[in-house]
Amino acid sequence: MSDVILWHNPACGTSRAALAMLRAAGIEPRILPYLQSPPDRETLRATIAAAGLTVREALRAKEPLCAELGLDDLGLGEAALLEAMLAHPVLINRPFVIAPGGTRLCRPAERLREILPGA
């Protein structure tokens, strides 16, 4: 089993690009289809923190649901944003890659090189 995990949305071009880069580097990641199997609260919080992001930075702000739910209100705290992301995983930005070399939100996919030199 791979020690690299990809939070993947196959409909996302950046997520597909990250997967292709991993495979080109000879890495077959464990794929977490996070829309169907979302992480639990602690995993989501810890992954965001490990990537060096705030919860707001990990929020997919371009998703129309973000505005519909009023999540673009900068007064909302991280707990409220986390709750929304857990209830609606489409609001989790992607792709997150978790590897021995670190955790990154790979937007753009080339950010993989920060944690996987061969990617």
Keywords:
119 residues, alpha+beta, Glutaredoxin, 4-stranded mixed sheet, 4 strands, 34% helix, elongated, Arsenate reductase
Q: In the CATH hierarchy, what is the architecture of the domain at 5-58 and 93-114 at level 2?
A: 3-Layer(aba) Sandwich
C-alpha termini separation: 18 Å
| Number of helices, where a helix is a run of at least 4 consecutive DSSP H or I residues | 5
N-to-C order of helices and strands: EHEHHHHEE
Largest sheet: 4 strands, mixed
Task: Report on the architecture of this protein.
With 119 residues, the protein is of the alpha+beta class. The protein has a domain at 5-58 and 93-114: Glutaredoxin, CATH 3.40.30.10. The chain has helices spanning 13-24, 41-50, 55-58, 64-68, 78-87; strands at 5-7, 30-32, 96-99, 102-105. The chain has a four-stranded mixed β-sheet, sandwiched between helices. The longest helix has 12 residues, at 13-24. It is elongated and about 40 Å long. GO terms for molecular function: arsenate reductase (glutaredoxin) activity.
